[in-house]
Specification:
single chain, 5 helices, 69% helix, DUF2752 domain-containing protein, membrane
Length: 84
Amino acid sequence: MLSLAMTSPTEESHFTLCPLKLMGIGWCPGCGLGHSIIYLFHGDISNSFRAHWLGIPAVAVIFNRIYVLIKARLMERNQFKSLT
């Protein structure tokens, strides 16, 4: 998430491993989702929605998952400390 937040939202050409881009297809759902998240982190909500409409919900789901995992890890540590 941090790397997406620090990436430039401009459409500069760069090295890619995307098979659709390598075949010359202009739009890829995976790349569109990444661009959507980048635009969202830079505050450009309209371009975020234009790049991929699931970008905004994906960020909410990812941050929720990060929160749940951190909370579970902290609870696990607290239970381990109480046993010792």
